[in-house]
């Protein structure tokens, strides 16, 4: 039986620290982006901070690209990561929209139920 062998380029030992730092920055800027946008949308911080969140997203995308170059990712993997980053740009907005729409929908139904209950009490009471 012939074993399948995957040939990957070796990462130079002198590249370990830059790879580690850039992958850490991807995580830090990603969490910063999500936190700033979410807190701004929820009203816990000013909307003036939203451009800083977008700057964090841009920095995260840059460091992810540079990180993928350092580890010698193939072109398909690089494209998938960049498409994922574009999707990540919209995830906090989508999450906040869904939460707001759900709250609005169920608050409206709750108000209608309360009005129906009051009307029944007035007519029968």
Description:
The protein is mostly helical. The protein is built from three helices and no strands. The chain has helices at 16-42, 50-70, 75-124. Helix 1 packs antiparallel against helix 2 (50-70) and helix 2 packs antiparallel against helix 3. The chain is elongated, with a radius of gyration of 24 Å. The termini are far apart.
Keywords:
125 residues; mainly alpha; 3 helices
N-to-C series of helices and strands: HHH
Mean pLDDT across every amino acid position:
84
Task: Report the strand count.
Answer: 0
Low-confidence stretches: none
Instruction: Give the terminus-to-terminus CA distance.
Output: 86 Å
Helix content: over 70%
Largest sheet: none
Strand content: under 5%
Which structural class matches the secondary elements? Answer: mainly alpha
- What form results from the Cα inertia axes? elongated
Instruction: Compute the CA-based radius of gyration.
Output: 24 Å
DSSP helix count? Answer: 3
Topology (SSEs and partners):
Layout: H1 16-42, H2 50-70, H3 75-124
Give a brief outline of the structure.
The protein has 125 residues and is an all-alpha fold. The chain has helices spanning 16-42, 50-70, 75-124.
């Amino acid at each position: 039986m012939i074993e399948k062998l995957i040939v990957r380029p070796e990462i130079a030992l002198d590249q370990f620290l830059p790879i580690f730092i850039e992958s850490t920055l991807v995580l830090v800027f990603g969490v910063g982006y999500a936190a700033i946008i979410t807190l701004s949308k929820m009203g816990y911080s000013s909307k003036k901070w939203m451009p800083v969140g977008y700057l964090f997203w841009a920095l995260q995308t840059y460091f992810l690209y540079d990180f993928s170059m350092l580890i010698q990712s193939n072109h398909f993997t690089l494209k998938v990561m960049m498409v994922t980053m574009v999707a990540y740009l919209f995830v906090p907005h989508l999450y906040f929209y869904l939460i707001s729409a759900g709250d609005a929908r169920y608050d409206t139904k709750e108000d209608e139920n309360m009005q129906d209950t009051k009307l029944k009490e007035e007519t029968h009471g």
